[in-house]
Amino acid sequence: MNALTKLLATIGRVTLGFLALVGRVAIFAGQSIGHIVRPPFYPRELLTAILNIGYFSLPVVGLTAIFTGAALALQIYSGGQRFSAEAVVPQIVAIGMVRELGPVLVGLMIAARVTSSIAAEIATMKVTEQIDALVTLSTHPMKYLTAPRVLAATLVVPLLVGIGDVIGIMGGFIVGTQQLGFATGPYLNNTWNFLETPDIVSSLIKGAAFGFIAAVMGCYHGMRSGRGAQGVGRATKTSVEAAAVLILAANFLLTSFFFAT
Q: Which residues of 115-139 are buried (b: 16+ CB within 10 A; e: fewer)?
C-alpha cells in the first residue's frame, strides 16, 4: 500500500507540475498578446525582429525547401512505379509541400534558428542585469523584448512558409522535368490545377501559429532562465525542445481542423 501511495503521489506531483507549467505558458502568451495591442510601441525593435526572423532566415528556409521538394519528387516517383502511378508526382509534391511539409519544416527551422537566438539573447540580458535596467528606466521588459518578437514572428513566418512552399514545389519541378522526364507544361498545369484555396490558406495559418509558438517559447524560457552560463544554455535548449514539440502538436490539431472528413 505504501508503494502504491508513493506511486500515486509521484504521478500527482508530475501532473500538477505539468498543469502548472501549461498555465504559466498560457498566461505568458496572453500577456504577450496584451502588450502587442496596447501602447507604447517600439517600431525599431519590431523592424529589427522582422529582419532577424524573416530576412535572415530566407537562406536556410530556401535550401531546406528546395532539397525537400526534390527528394519528395524522387520518393513519389519511385513509389508510384510500383502501382504504375508515376504521373501523380506533380500533384502529390504540390499538396505535400503546401499542406504539410512546407509549414512544418519552416516552423522547425524557425524553432532551431530563431527560438534559440531569442532565448539566448534574453537569458543573457537577464544574467547581465540588463532586464533589471529596463525596469529601472520604467520600461516593461515584456513590452520592449517580448511583444516585438512575438508580433514579428507571427507576421513574418507565414511569408516564409509561402516562399518555402513555392521553392519546394520548384525543387520537385526541377527534378521532375530534368531527371524524371516530365514535360514542363503539363507538370506546371497539374500543379496549379490540383492546389485549392483552402490548401494555401491552411498553410499560411499554420505559419502564423508556428511563428507565434516559436517566439513565445523563446521569450518565455529566456525570461525564466537561471543565472550564469548554465542557465543560459538550459534556457536555450529547453526553448527549442518545447517549440519543436508544440509546433508538431499544433500541426496535428490544425490539420485535423482544416482537413477532417
A: bbbbbbbbbbbbbeeebeebeeeee
Look-up of cell digits 500527482 = 12
Burial zone of 184 (CB within 10 Å; 0-12 exposed, 13-18 middle, 19+ buried) = exposed
Distances (CA, A) of 75 to 79, 86, 125, 180, 189: 6, 10, 46, 11, 21
Q: Dihedral of the CA atoms 88, 92, 95, 101 (nearest 10)?
A: -170
* Residue located via cell numbers 499560411: 204
Residue written as cell 511583444? Answer: 147
Nearest to 118 by CA among 24, 37, 223, 47: 223
As a whole-number percent, the residues of the chain with pLDDT over 90 amount to 39
**Helix locations, the chain, DSSP H:** 2-37, 43-53, 58-80, 89-95, 102-110, 116-127, 130-136, 141, 147-178, 184-194, 197-223, 228-259
54 three-class SS? coil
Output the CA torsion 66→68→71→72 (10° steps): -110
Question: Residue ranges of the chain with pLDDT lower than 70?
Answer: 1, 85, 261
Q: Is the peptide bond before 40 cis (omega within 30 degrees of 0)?
A: yes
Report the pLDDT value the prediction gives residue 78, as an integer from 0 to 100: 83
Calpha distance 120→124 (Å, rounded): 6
Q: Count the alpha carbons within 13 Å of 167 in the hemisphere toward its beta carbon.
A: 21
